[in-house]
Amino acid sequence: KAGVTQTPRYLIKTRGQQVTLSCSPISGHRSVSWYQQTPGQGLQFLFEYFSETQRNKGNFPGRFSGRQFSNSRSEMNVSTLELGDSALYLCASSLEDGIYGYTFGSGTRLTVV
Amino acid sequence: DAKTTQPNSMESNEEEPVHLPCNHSTISGTDYIHWYRQLPSQGPEYVIHGLTSNVNNRMASLAIAEDRKSSTLILHRATLRDAAVYYCILMLGGTSYGKLTFGQGTILTVHP
């Protein structure tokens, strides 16, 4: 079956701009989570959506937001980009509670210049 | 979140078994022990999970101490493709809501 698909794979944006990243989960998976990975901070949880509702949120500023559509696809948006937002953004999907594991996508590499 | 402690790095030779340890002395009764690995330039990959009993799957085995304060991921015959960062994560059953708390993990180097 198809894995988790993230688009685009690479993105270069200018400071102050906004960006939208997309994630298509595995068919049948209703939970979608987002993570930020940087060399300094490692993997950090951003937020999770289930059935179009945000169920959990990490410790990130309000510039980071997301949403989930009725087909479980999810998008995350970062507004007013800062240099420090340069990172690999990963999306993961799972069945309802993730007990049997999360499947991650290959990520979107965002570079802010 | 309950904390896990792993060695920063380990080395192995190809086709030899590898035992990756993880300490989680503050684990609660409802925490599941999950292992993920991340190969270079890829997202993390689920390896195995367990609650109290030892577990086996096609990728690895998970040995859980009787008091559950430590666990060991066992790769029975390491290959060069097993070179990755391995993360041991505690996940509260049913209420984690997508949140996996990744530590620094163990960097596994496999020598040919």
Largest pleated sheet of chain B: 5 strands, mixed
Biggest sheet layout of chain A: 7 strands, mixed
Taken from the alpha-carbon principal axes, the silhouette of chain A is globular
Helix-strand pattern of chain A? EEEEEEEEEEE
Q: How many H/I helical runs of chain A?
A: 0
Quaternary structure state of the chains depicted:
heterodimer
What average pLDDT do the residues of chain B reach? 93
Q: Major sheet of chain B: order of its strands?
A: 1-9-8-3-4
Radius of gyration of chain A: 13 Å
The total strand number of chain B stands at 9
Q: What percent of residues of chain B adopt helix (DSSP H or I)?
A: under 10%
Distance between the termini of chain A: 37 Å
Structural class of chain B: mainly beta
Q: What share of the residues of chain A lie within helices?
A: under 10%
Structural class by sheet pairing and helices of chain A: mainly beta
Strand portion of chain B: over 45%
What is the distance, rounded to the nearest whole angstrom, between the alpha carbons of the first and last residues of chain B? 38 Å
How does the overall form of chain B come out from the CA principal axes?
A: globular
Describe this protein's structure.
- Chain A is built from no helices and eleven strands.
- Chain A is mainly beta.
- In chain A, strands 2, 4, 5, 6, 9, 10 and 11 form a seven-stranded mixed sheet that branches. A four-stranded antiparallel sheet of chain A has the order 1-3-8-7, with no helix packed on it.
- In chain A, a hairpin with a 5-residue loop joins strand 7 and strand 8.
- Chain B contains no helices and nine strands.
- In chain B, the strands form two sheets. Chain B has a five-stranded mixed sheet, with no helix packed on it.
- In chain B, a hairpin with a 4-residue loop joins strand 5 and strand 6.
- The interface between A and B is medium-sized, with 30 and 22 residues.
List the helices and strands and how they pair.
The complex is a heterodimer of chains A (113) and B (112).
Chain A: E1 5-7, E2 10-13, E3 19-24, E4 31-38, E5 42-50, E6 53-57, E7 64-68, E8 74-78, E9 87-94, E10 103-104, E11 108-112
Chain B: E1 9-13, E2 18-23, E3 31-38, E4 45-50, E5 55-56, E6 61-64, E7 70-75, E8 84-92, E9 106-111
Parallel strand pairs in B: 1-9
Antiparallel strand pairs in B: 2-7, 3-4, 3-8, 5-6, 6-7, 8-9
